[in-house]
């Protein structure tokens, strides 16, 4: 199993020192309190007494203008022309909505073919993501292919990049003629895959590169204790093909939580999660920033293209060890407010958004490389029910229930919530610049 256990949550940042300035003059304080009180009442009124649509409109307005640069990255215009922030929203019950294809026919990784593996409850296929402020159109294979006509769409990153790439392959191959160009001969590894869609001259590829940078060790052989990662060089296979890529989806936030030794210019610059190596722990945020920055710089030279950075997709090993079959046994999505992101999840998401913003700054306005963020953290975080769990293996309870069983609460079942990532991707790619 490729689930990566977070080794430690992010260290708490110290609070800023309290201001020691003397208090304000009383009337000013009263004014501030009155103003705050008024705003609070207006907010309460909006929350309790206005229709849901008005609430969503107001909140999407607030969200949209909170950070203009960020909002440009995460909004698209819906059919009606209004801006839509898909990164906030809720899952609504929509029977059958996510029963989009037969994963056995499109040959997904067996561990994520939950129906084939005998998962009996299928309610996780009856939900639709409702973004704040506008509907998210259902995936449309012809529209997607038209948006990327003549192009090579590449998913580069960890097993979540592959999960999303396989989802896209299924969404497309179930609808239009295609050809399987390449399959990893070692079926369970799936380090490289490619499909062709001749009607639109489109190629879709998946490149396994869990650190984006060149890496060996644990990521190649799970019995090894740690990874060896180059922060200054992209992994070989995707680097060799980079010149052919027109749309690149990068997703690689999970493996930096694993033990690793990081190199830059051939020198060890830090280690993470492996105290025996007697080196200062570099943590996971610095390496994550650096591999994204290096990859974005690499992709910003050469041909014009679109680079889409997918944000962290949280795991749901809810207070259970990785091998507890009940670790993600929930049968429904979380409701708004039921589960908040923890500080590590927020940080992993934020780093990717910030690196996208930094790349936009570096490339300048109207640069040849368009940078987009596929902000899936919230919509993924609200789907504890969408993982294979013990159904990562065929008929896991055929011999009764064991206390410890391989359990996957990281990837999503196919079909499943990860298909929604591609519905959002479609909107991003159809968006006018
Ligand atoms: C998918 O297709 C296979 C092979 O045609 C079939 O045996 C299986 O029942 C189908 N699965 C679902 C969930 O429809
Ligand atoms: C994987 O690593 C282990 C431990 O270092 C080693 O014994 C084994 O031979 C390696 N397997 C392969 C296929 O390289």
From TrEMBL:
<dbReference type="GO" id="GO:0000139">
    <property type="term" value="C:Golgi membrane"/>
</dbReference>
<keyword id="KW-0333">Golgi apparatus</keyword>
<keyword id="KW-0472">Membrane</keyword>
<keyword id="KW-1133">Transmembrane helix</keyword>
<comment type="similarity">
    <text>Belongs to the PC-esterase family. TBL subfamily.</text>
</comment>
<feature type="domain" description="Trichome birefringence-like N-terminal">
    <location>
        <begin position="83"/>
        <end position="134"/>
    </location>
</feature>
<dbReference type="Pfam" id="PF14416">
    <property type="entry name" value="PMR5N"/>
</dbReference>
<keyword id="KW-0812">Transmembrane</keyword>
<keyword id="KW-0808">Transferase</keyword>
<keyword id="KW-0735">Signal-anchor</keyword>
<dbReference type="GO" id="GO:1990538">
    <property type="term" value="F:xylan O-acetyltransferase activity"/>
</dbReference>
<dbReference type="InterPro" id="IPR025846">
    <property type="entry name" value="TBL_N"/>
</dbReference>
<protein>
    <submittedName>
        <fullName>Uncharacterized protein</fullName>
    </submittedName>
</protein>
<dbReference type="InterPro" id="IPR026057">
    <property type="entry name" value="TBL_C"/>
</dbReference>
<dbReference type="Pfam" id="PF13839">
    <property type="entry name" value="PC-Esterase"/>
</dbReference>
<dbReference type="InterPro" id="IPR029962">
    <property type="entry name" value="TBL"/>
</dbReference>
<feature type="domain" description="Trichome birefringence-like C-terminal">
    <location>
        <begin position="136"/>
        <end position="427"/>
    </location>
</feature>
